[in-house]
Amino acid sequence: MIPPAALAMTAPAPRGAISLHRISRIFAGGIPAVDRINLDINPGEFFTLLGPSGCGKTTLLRMIAGFETPDEGRLLISGREMQDVPPHKRAVNTVFQSYALFPHLNVEQNIGFGLRMQGVKNPERKRRVDTIMELMQISPFAKRGAAQLSGGQRQRVALARALVNEPEVVLLDEPLSALDAKLRNELQIELLRMQKHLGMTFIFVTHDQHEALVMSDRIGVMSKGRIQQVGAVLDVYEKPKNVFVAEFLGLSNILVLTPTGARTAQTPLGELRVDEELNGHKLAMIRPEKIWIYNDTAAPQGRPNTFMGTVHEAIYMGASTQYRIDLGNNQFVSAYDTNNQAAERSWRPGEKVTVELKPENIMLIEP
Amino acid sequence: MSTAVTQIDAAAHRQRLRLLATSGPGLFWIMLFLLIPSAILLGIAFFSADDYGNPVLPLSLQPFQQVAGYSLLGWDAGNINIFLRSLEQAGIATIVSAAVSYPLVFFILSRPEGIRPLLLLFIVLPSWTNQVVRTYAWLELLGPNAPLTWVAHALHIVPPDLGLAPGSFAVTTGLAYNYLPYMIVPLYASAEKLDWTLVEAGRDLYASGVKLFWHAVFPQTLPGLLSGVIFVAIPAFGDYVVPQLLGGDRALMIGSLIANQFTETPDWPYGAALTIIMLVFTGLGLVGFRILTRKLGGAEEATI
């Protein structure tokens, strides 16, 4: 019998914490793929590295996996320095973009590979492989070769092959990009469910902003080898730090400000009032869904930030319609409106409307 | 309706003509230089031999009895030994060439892409020169007064008055050297297509060193290796030049045995029977190998 005190002492330490200190990776040609990145990822977190292709997110992931060695900086996994440790000695497993299943092994053997290499003997190994196959609902394919699986099944096997080793951190390199939209949605939900169930740290790399929003606890938006902003999904979307983040994550209207007071500025649209103190900011942004549109006749009277305009373009998208509104002077804003009324109620190109940019919805950003 | 049938017939006729025109010359070549001589050989194997070794009537099974080791003096294990020695020499030579090829192939692949074809050329180049010349070179290298032999003397591998050649060691070396390009080229072709993400997956899943090679690299190169085995083992088994020059009396192989029946001590029917038996065994070996590659899977290009 183990005394309760001993049990309390063996309570799991924060496994799966990742800490990067000024990590850089410079490839031939001298341009850094990853440029002095500092980043802390919490244990048990679903963290997404989001950015366009070539931004360095995959290189960063490969350094955590151990396939690339940083040219400078320190990499800590669960508090231990790991930057010079080879991949097979890291409690980290990767789900590859191409899945990288061994073609000469069947599903069961693929999943058991990591355990076999670690010397886990058979009754135990088989038990763990069976458990994970059950959990991932792939038991019926256990004896099939990798070539005989569909894309979705392969994805599941690749994930199971990583999870069965019970790593501290799971790295996922755009694992859903090769799948069709419906399957991708299914697997997104499944992936989240597994992650919450197992409590491992997941680091997910994607260029798909929608995927990042749906899945992550926190997002790190990357561009040109640097992290532009790190934060909870809500914060990064609602309060982007700069133009790149605002434009990469969702649609946004960027406004150029010429300050006229502490909270007022002149813009090409006209006089604009904001809630935050300008504090030297020269740019602001507002999300399209935060712009209110009124019929010309029903325009609110005596409120700030209302502008008259004409509907230039209306793109019907089912649940909502995206409008491009001409505010004169060659200025346009994008605005969403939910189609919660009869379709005839929506505006058509050429109609006169008034838009309202409420001060609390205008966010100050950096270039 | 009848015109439609005629049209189809005409089309089929044209197709047959095209087939004949394209495959005809090749078929003619094979007929003239492979099938007809083989048929003649098969015929000769069933004749008796006169005093000069020429085939004469009556028809006889005596040549095959001779192959099996029976003669006027009773049964002798000589032929079986020669057969087994050929098998052994070819087998060892194949293993040696494979063992040399792997590091060489991956060394070439680790070089910049531009110079790889040049390096491959250096490997293939010697095989464009005469085999006899190259084999004589080995005779010098392994002869009684060569540095390699001094090393062997110092290690007491061979008696002080003898060289490494002639002998079995020299034959194995000569065969492995001679057929090395035929191992390297197919192995290189499959190693070039290697999916390195699988190697990364292996490293990620706790494999390293020999285990990593065995589980993530080797299975991918298997098709090339199996092709190489065929290209090396079969000609090595029946090779004549190497055992003749490097083997001496102590390492007679089946190729030399056959050649003897047509030159030094002529006995055409016996030589023909030996050839037929060798062909049969080679064929059986290929069939067995094909079954093996099917079992190992994913090696279709290696099956002939």
What does this structure look like?
By secondary structure, chain A is of the alpha+beta class. Chain A has two domains: 18-246, 3-Layer(aba) Sandwich (Rossmann fold), CATH 3.40.50; 251-365, RNA polymerase II/Efflux pump adaptor protein, barrel-sandwich hybrid domain (OB fold (Dihydrolipoamide Acetyltransferase, E2P)), CATH 2.40.50. Chain A is 25% helix and 32% strand. Chain A contains nine helices and 21 strands. Chain A has helices at 4-9, 57-65, 107-117, 122-136, 151-163, 181-198, 209-215, 233-238, 243-248, and strands at 18-26, 32-41, 46-50, 72-77, 80-81, 92-95, 169-173, 201-206, 218-223, 226-232, 253-256, 258-259, 264-267, 270-273, 283-286, 291-295, 306-316, 320-326, 332-338, 352-357, 363-365. A six-stranded mixed sheet of chain A has the order 6-7-8-3-9-10, sandwiched between helices. A five-stranded antiparallel sheet of chain A has the order 16-20-17-18-19, with no helix packed on it. In chain A, strand 18 and strand 19 (332-338) form a beta hairpin. The longest helix of chain A has 18 residues, at 181-198. The N and C termini of chain A lie far apart (62 Å). Chain B is an all-alpha fold and 304 residues long. Chain B folds into two domains: 1-39; 65-302, MetI-like fold (Orthogonal Bundle), CATH 1.10.3720. Chain B is built from twelve helices and four strands; from the N terminus they run H-E-E-H-E-E-H-H-H-H-H-H-H-H-H-H. Chain B has a two-stranded antiparallel ribbon with strand order 1-2. In chain B, strands 3-4 form a two-stranded antiparallel sheet. In chain B, a hairpin with a 2-residue loop joins strand 3 and strand 4 (74-75). Residues 298-304 of chain B have low confidence and may be disordered. The A-B interface holds A 65-67, 86-88, 92-94, 96, 98, 100-104, 113-114, 117-118, 161, 165 and B 195, 197-198, 200-208, 211-212, 215-216, 219, 222, 297-298.
